[in-house]
Amino acid sequence: MTGSPQTPLFIVSTGRSGSTMLSELLSLHPDVLSLSELFNALHPLGFRKDPVDGPDFWSVLSEPRPRHAAWLRLMERGLAIDEFRYPLASALRFRETGIPPLLAMTLPPLTEDPDGLHEELRIFVQALPEDRIHRQYLQVFQWLCARLGRRFWCERSGASLGLVHPLSHFFPAARFIHVFRDGREFAVSARRFAPMRMGMIGTMFKQRFGTAPYLTPTYQIPADLPPEWHGLVPESFDVDVFHRFELPIEPIGLAWSEMITVGLQLLENVPAEQVLHVRYESMLDAPHAELQRIVRFMDPSLDDPSWLAQAAARVRKNPPKWVSLPTDERARLESACAPGMELLRRLA
């Protein structure tokens, strides 16, 4: 590896707010390594030990996470989860052992041979001497840049506003791009999004029966499970039942407001010059200007007219869908989102 580590750059959001779109557009830039879902894939063990030597750090990066095993079980039954990027046919060999998290989400978009890159990374990481964990991450990011021919990295994880605290603690010089969206649109999108539906259904199960169905290798079906819920548990999972299951939208709006409130409080502890707030709707309305503002914040040398034209041309309008909700449901959702929306208006 050559060169000194760059200033860390993290893209954070509540999820369902355009950060995936931004990450994919940045991946088109010839100088940018856009890492997707790395810290999300590693959560909650990403910072469990500090300092850490190479073999232990590789355990942090490679230890399978229960939720990915749950995703695999449900994907095998027909559930589509776009964030799981490793080919399903190959992933099924990990049924019993669990899939390494970087293979599940982060490495497949970077190469046609994620297994090979994963093995190269293992050899590099396991040879690292003991050091602070944030410096070990920086070594990995720098190695990936050198290996893949890029000079600047950024990391984006969905629903990562809650990660601002550990990220700003371990990387005090880091810059943050906060992508946000109208909370009412977030709620409509989240209610359809499979991983968030799993989380919300899991919460309902835990409140009613004491355990959630998607985070253990086997789930003991409660004796009093309503018949209409049987299609939700892994052992008798039915994709149609899962997608038809009615989830109230008001709690989603309340959860979004809470995420925005806590996330903005965390970002207020970061020096203002290290934070850029980006409105998703503004990216749709003026993609060229917003993308230019973003890369200039990341590093002025990334301002590339050819990339800007290519990336801006890929942005598509996305008309609001919350306005089509029934009147009473729309009113409840607006009320639930009001605290977060007011904070964002003040921010603007």
Strand content: 5-15%
Quickly give the structural class. Answer: alpha/beta
Q: From the 3D coordinates, which CATH architecture of the domain at 9-184 and 252-313 would you assign?
A: 3-Layer(aba) Sandwich
Straight-line distance between termini: 41 Å
Record the strand order, biggest sheet. Answer: 2-3-1-4-5
Overall helicity: 40-55%
Condensed summary:
By secondary structure, this protein is an alpha/beta fold.
Describe the 3D structure.
The protein has 348 residues and is an alpha/beta fold. The protein has a domain at 9-184 and 252-313: Rossmann fold (3-Layer(aba) Sandwich), CATH 3.40.50. It contains 17 helices and five strands. It has helices at 19-26, 38-42, 54-62, 66-76, 88-91, 101-106, 114-126, 133-148, 164-170, 183-192, 194-209, 239-244, 250-268, 280-285, 287-298, 305-313, 327-347, and strands at 9-12, 32-36, 152-156, 175-180, 275-279. The chain has a five-stranded parallel β-sheet, sandwiched between helices. The radius of gyration is 21 Å and the shape is globular.
List keywords for this structure.
348 residues, alpha/beta, Rossmann fold, five-stranded parallel sheet, 17 helices, 51% helix, 7% strand
Protein topology:
Elements: E1 9-12, H1 19-26, E2 32-36, H2 38-42, H3 54-62, H4 66-76, H5 88-91, H6 101-106, H7 114-126, H8 133-148, E3 152-156, H9 164-170, E4 175-180, H10 183-192, H11 194-209, H12 239-244, H13 250-268, E5 275-279, H14 280-285, H15 287-298, H16 305-313, H17 327-347
Parallel strand pairs: 1-3, 1-4, 2-3, 4-5
